[in-house]
Amino acid sequence: MQPNSDDKQWEYTGVINEASRKWWVLTGVSIVSFLGCIDLTIVNTAAPDIGRDLRTTVTQMQLIVNIFVVALSMFMVTAGRLSDILGRRKVLYAGTALFGLASLGAGLAPNIPLLVVFRFLQGASCAVLYTSSSTIVSNAFPESQRGKAIGTLFAVNGIGLAIGPMLGGLIVGALNWHWVFLVNVPLVVIALAICSVSLTESKADTDVELDWPGLVLLALGLSGVIFAFTFNDTFGWGSWQVLGTLAVGVLALVVFVIVDRRQRFPLIPFKLLANKLFLSAVTAEFSLAFFYTTALFLMPLYLSTVRHYDELTIGLMMLPTTATVAVLSPLVGRLVDKVGPIIVLTTGFAAFTLSAVLQSQFDAHSGIGYVAAAFVLMGIGWAFVLGPAAVAALSAVPQRLSGLAVGATWTFHNFGGAVGLALGMTLFRGFGESALRGGLATQGATAGPWTAEVVAKPGSAADLLQQHAGLGQPAAGDLVDSLFAAGDRAAMLLLVGTSLVAMVTIFVLGRLRGRDQGQVAETAQEEPADLPAS
User: Fold this and answer.
1) TM segments (predicted)?
2) Same domain, 233 and 259
């Protein structure tokens, strides 16, 4: 499980005792990584308050939320490669400082254009935080403790991703939307102070040059494709905005592959994808984000629309997922140290599959224990995939490529999230509207163009049905429950299918890798030194 130790390391001469230094590294890096993960999801619940204050349109609000993901995806691989070449500590400091300044700018932004710019800078800087954090922690700990350390880091990350919406609602309720961003600033200062006295520098001991053509083409391609999937709900799949950016993105990615394969120092060594362990990590990251972006959208929607819980109760009901991630991740890290990542990843997707099966049967009469069991299973899956996927990626490459490995897998992570949410919501709307039209026919009411609005606005769906279809409150409420159940079932069955595919794929890759273990030494002699064979 240990990557090749071929990095250039600098001797630590700081003020912290060497024995405790690695734990201070983990603390400082976890803070900035946690902030980056929170900012990926925290703005969702602050969006209505921002919209009222700055008088934004729905499209502008989606831009504020989603431009972060576009920037994150654009620079993920580049950030990982820069950390390998220039030095991980140096790049982490720069990314953390930029994140703090961008958070300050976003919190003080007086208008939408400036807020969008600072959100873009937040996303770009978080590409550094995500890629550098795991490689720095991996380098700081010995092999025997690496899984535990990365498990702890990703427990913190998982909590940040999961509690972001709830925390955003609490901050907005207690203060205002500005503090959703401003709260980052003092924590960034604390993290920088801890890192400044604990981190040592490490980077690849090579004369590798940055692949600038590949960098530009990859950024253009990823941003185009991610934009298309992210904003399809805003503009529509047939719009020129979506089709145009998708075409530009796909073309740029095709040219990137052609150009990058001819470079002396390619941005992405494509032979990595022939590495079964690395391919397992890519599959896991893509499928993980595919699952949780859709599930985290539908779970609170079910609790609010069908069960009519308030925001505090919804937050408490989400605790089985977030608490499970927090408790299990460090334990899972130790398990990875003992049995390797493949078995753990396979188990994680089995838990995701069971969770999605249970959630596909949610309705107004589902018991609290049944709902909690589904949410706990999701937390188990999350804990068994998030950290082990990073361990698999780092274990598949030598340390001098660790930043690149994390950047590449997180790029697939972001792409999986965009694709998952787009497909999940398409199924939810399609099956939900079909159930709505069938229910209206049963009630003797006539469907109209407004049915799409009912599905798109579940919070006011019952009122819209009373207004347009003339239904009474009980009938309207029952119809809303049925349309949600139909849409939710379709989206969750999609997650069942993708989780099963991921589980089987990773299991098969693990078996193939095990079969090839006896040939690794011989094969490695035929491979480039920086690309392990399995």
Assistant:
1) 23-43, 63-79, 91-110, 116-137, 149-171, 177-200, 212-231, 237-258, 278-302, 314-332, 339-358, 370-397, 404-428, 490-509
2) yes
- Whether residue 2 contacts residue 337, with contact meaning beta carbons closer than 8 Å, is answered with no
Q: Nearest to residue 4, comparing CAs of 362, 401, 487, 429? A: 401
Domains in the chain: how many in total? 2
Comparing CA positions, the residue from 272, 501, 502 lying closest to residue 385 is 502
Supply the pTM of this predicted model.
Answer: 0.77
Residue 40: which of 172, 154, 165, 132 has the closest Cα?
Answer: 165
Token pair of 260 as six digits: 């990058």
pLDDT at position 372 is: 93
User: Which carries the bigger pLDDT value, residue 530 or residue 136?
Assistant: 136
What whole-number distance in Å separates Cα of residue 455 and Cα of residue 4?
Answer: 53
Residues 109 and 229 in one domain: no
Report the SS3 class of residue 451: helix
Q: How confident is the model at residue 127 (pLDDT cuts 50, 70, 90)?
A: confident
Q: How many CA atoms lie within 13 A of 449 on its CB side?
A: 0
Where b means 16+ CB within 10 Å and e means fewer, 369-393 reads: eebeebbbbbbbbbbbbbbbbbbbb
3-state secondary structure of 133: helix
- Other beta carbons within 10 angstroms of residue 48's beta carbon come to 14
On whether both 95 and 221 belong to a single domain, the answer is no
CB 228 within 8 A of CB 118: no
Q: Tell me the longest C-alpha to C-alpha distance in the chain.
A: 79
CA 340 to chain centre: 23
End-to-end Cα spacing for the chain: 11
- Say which CATH number the domain at 134 has: 1.20.1250.20
Same domain for 185 and 237, yes or no, is no
